[in-house]
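Entry 12.
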Amino acid sequence: MLETFTQVFAANKTLAYGTLVFVFISTCILLLIPFESRELLGINLWIKPLKFAISIMIFLATSVFMLEPLPYTKPWVNFLSWVLLITMLIEIFCIIFQASRGQLSHFNVTDPIGSVMFPLMATAITVAYLVYAVVLIDYFRLEVNLSNELTWAIRLGIIIFLFGAVTGFMMGGNLKHSVGVADGGPGLPFTNWSTVAGDLRVSHFVSIHAIQVLPLLALSLKAYNRPFPLKDLQIIFVFSALYFAFMVLTLIQALLGRPFIRL
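Predicted 3D structure (tokens):
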């Protein structure tokens, strides 16, 4: 385990230290929750910052492994890494700052500070998506020192990840994530996905985590024998198609005003 962490730090210290920063942020937020009585949209106001901090922590750690195989120069890797880290720091700062004020961070254009922070967050996330668009192009354009199966898993994972921008822009354009009702109300534990109406966050969640799911699938296929005859690359393509279809179906379900899970 120690050797793995050492390799990660050696590959990309900027994103590795950034990941540790978000481990610290996540821990601090988690410790705040039991002492907070205020709520936003019916849940403890620190739940949302915690979800984003954990998600960003995973995203930055994943980005170490996304950038490392590409034949980039050290200055270019550092530049992309700092862009990703700064955009994520902007995102979490806005979310934590607004939560501390008892205000919504997303879709908040009535609060004077929120009307500045929400567009700032949207810009930061868009820049991060653009970085990954560049990375995707280079995974097709440049030669990487990875197996064909893992290379395709990364390519397909990033493609699906970039579709997350679609649901993101939908939510931003509508100034809410719910379909058919106002934001808030009954929701699933922790995620708070609506259990009574459509929720665009489900499809968004599925898409943005494709960059972890598909590469992990490719790595696991190398580690275990399987009782069926499909080749690794065939499995990756089939699973990617099913994963993409699931993402689209959750989007359609939300747009029809139907909850992902009705309780």
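Annotation: The chain has a mean pLDDT of 92. The radius of gyration is 19 Å.
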